[in-house]
Design brief:
This protein folds into three domains: 4-65, Uridine Diphospho-n-acetylenolpyruvylglucosamine Reductase, domain 2 (2-Layer Sandwich); 70-223, Uridine Diphospho-n-acetylenolpyruvylglucosamine Reductase, domain 3 (2-Layer Sandwich), CATH 3.30.465.10; 231-334, Uridine Diphospho-n-acetylenolpyruvylglucosamine Reductase, domain 1, CATH 3.90.78.10. The chain contains seven helices and 21 strands. It has helices at 30-39, 90-99, 193-201, 209-223, 244-253, 271-277, 306-324; strands spanning 4-8, 20-27, 43-46, 52-53, 58-65, 70-75, 79-85, 102-103, 124-125, 128-129, 134-141, 147-151, 172-183, 231-235, 241-243, 260-261, 266-268, 284-285, 288-290, 297-300, 333-334. Strands 6, 7, 8, 11, 12 and 13 form a six-stranded antiparallel beta sheet that branches. Strands 1-2-5-3 form a four-stranded mixed beta sheet, with helices on one face. The protein has a four-stranded antiparallel beta sheet with strand order 14-20-19-18, covered by helices on one side. 24% of the residues lie in helices and 28% in strands. Bound molecules: uridine-diphosphate-2(N-acetylglucosaminyl) butyric acid.
């Protein structure tokens, strides 16, 4: 096993922040992972680096989970169960499924990150969340090196949430995820407005999963920056949920405020709209900025430090609180 010291993490986080790890190792097998967990006392786990903002050097051993492999476990006429190791790139796995005509994750095309981190924040987009197709998750306990298996319900999934972010935070390394996908009898989900209009543009009435994947890729490329070109971490904030009375008050002042009704008492408001209305969309402060096509995304134009991006996030949070009385919660992990 090869450890590196004073190792730059610039290429290992999608914000492209140049901080250093005191010690770094990329592991490619379960045995290596277990060995590292036993030998290193203080570890920092790194997967695709797509949902984190690094604000300082890491004075720990950074363990890059680089486990690869895709295996079909069960296959019937209408269903397939696929086991995927944590280090596989999420979007490449989606494309693999689409090309094999395995359905269920086509709406989640082009989301940055790795398979092993998709359950942690229950990634979601265009009407689908990954919890809808996860059969089970395997994880190695950091303190013992033992593997535990979590059924879908044991993962305690919620909006951008799971047990891995809460009760079991920092206790496990996710090693494998099993997905139950459809074969032949797909259940396409085109209810999200932008997908339907994108398909209509191409006169597609009965879309294949490939058509849906292509539509999602086009939509995402039209408004979300590619991390390979401009550093970013997707949605930086969660969409806040507020009470109906609070919402009615805001609607009087802002009649066009968009919303998703959650239940009789609560309404979700798009953070992107709040940030744009507060005047931040497209604003740039040095190399830290708010994307000009989707205000929910903070960007690094080149050499911003994590601290600069974090300061911008705090400035946005306090303006949103003053203007709308809404607390914006950060979605990415600030480390
Ligand atoms: N909006 C604005 N200004 C903006 C951005 C959005 O006014 O700058 C308004 C839009 O006009 C629309 C509403 O906000 O009325 C919602 O916008 P959009 O459909 O783009 O989706 P979102 O709520 O901003 C969520 C997810 C995205 C996911 C999309 C599509 C969260 C925090 N974000 O964004 O997830 O791709 O829906 O399903 O739930 C991610 O997590 O990295 C991510 C990109």
């Amino acid at each position: 096993m090869e450890f590196h010291s004073n190792f730059s993490l610039k290429d290992y986080n999608t914000f492209g922040i140049d901080v250093k790890a005191k010690k770094f190792i990329s592991i490619t097998s379960m045995e290596q992972l277990r060995e590292v967990l036993v030998s290193e006392s203080d570890i920092f786990l790194l997967s695709g680096g797509s949902n984190m903002l690094l604000t300082k050097d890491i004075d720990k051993t950074v363990v890059h989970v680089n486990l690869k492999g895709i295996t079909i476990l069960e296959e019937s006429e209408n269903q397939v169960v696929i086991e995927v190791l944590a280090g596989e790139d999420w979007h490449q796995f989606v494309l693999w499924c689409v090309n094999h005509d395995f359905g269920g994750i086509e709406n989640l095309s082009l989301i940055p990150g790795n398979v092993g981190t998709c359950p942690i924040q229950n990634i979601g987009a265009y009407g689908v969340e990954v919890k809808d197709v996860i059969e089970s998750v395997d994880a190695m306990e950091i303190s013992t090196g033992k593997i535990q298996t979590f059924s879908n319900s044991e993962c305690e999934f919620g909006y951008r949430n799971s047990i891995f972010k809460n009760a079991l935070k920092d206790q496990l390394v996710i090693t494998k995820v099993r997905f139950k996908l459809t074969k032949g009898a797909h259940k396409p989900n085109t209810s999200y407005g932008a997908i339907e209009s994108e398909l209509l543009k191409h006169n597609i009435e009965n879309p294949t999963i490939k058509d849906i994947s292509n539509a999602v890729i086009t939509i995402r490329q039209s408004k979300l920056p590619d991390p390979k070109e401009i550093g970013n971490s997707g949605s930086f904030f969660k969409n806040p949920v507020i009470g109906t009375t609070h919402f009615e008050n805001l609607k009087e002042k802002y009649p066009n405020i968009p919303c998703y009704i959650i239940d009789d008492n609560s309404i979700k408001v798009p953070a992107g709209w709040l940030i744009e209305t507060a005047g931040f969309k497209g604003k740039r402060f040095g190399d830290a900025g708010v994307h000009n096509r989707q205000a929910l995304v903070l960007v690094n134009y080149g050499n911003a430090s994590g601290q600069e991006i974090f300061e911008l996030a705090k400035q946005i949070q306090s303006k949103i609180k003053i203007d709308f009385g809404v607390e914006l919660e950060i979605e990415v992990n600030v480390c």
